[in-house]
Amino acid sequence: MFFLNIRGNILVDFNKSPLLSLDFKEDIVIDVLDLSFFNLVETDETLSFWDLIRDARDFAKILKEHKMTVILNIKGKETLILGEKAKPSISQILSKSKDIEIKNIIQTAKMSKEVLD
């Protein structure tokens, strides 16, 4: 069994501006404070939205198996919940996963667009 016993937070700045916040409590909360963060992420140019969903599905399943939850916020707004505490409803149709909850469809769409552009 895998246990993560890290507590605290990390703030990542870029050019003296807050970019990303990681908060380790009971859950792992990732808050993307500036969408330019996604410009720093290198992706395969052939990657599609559905590839992102498939990868998120695989990651969320592993999290749930380890009884962990990752909450992704965009500028402080809860956007996605992956893993143990995800309670999907209509978002299950899109993600085809019981381990992903899309809390904010508009923010999720913007985020995926930023990653893929």
Brief descriptors of the model:
117 residues, alpha+beta, 6-stranded mixed beta sheet, 6 strands
Quick recap of the structure?
By secondary structure, this protein is α+β, with helices and mostly antiparallel strands.
Please explain how this structure is put together.
The chain has about 120 residues and is an alpha+beta fold. It has one domain (about 10-115). Helices cover about 30% and strands about 30% of the residues. The protein has helices at about 50-65, 90-95, 105-115; strands spanning about 10-15, 15-25, 30, 70-75, 75-85, 100. The chain has a six-stranded mixed sheet with strand order 1-2-3-4-5-6. The model has no long low-confidence stretch (mean pLDDT about 80).
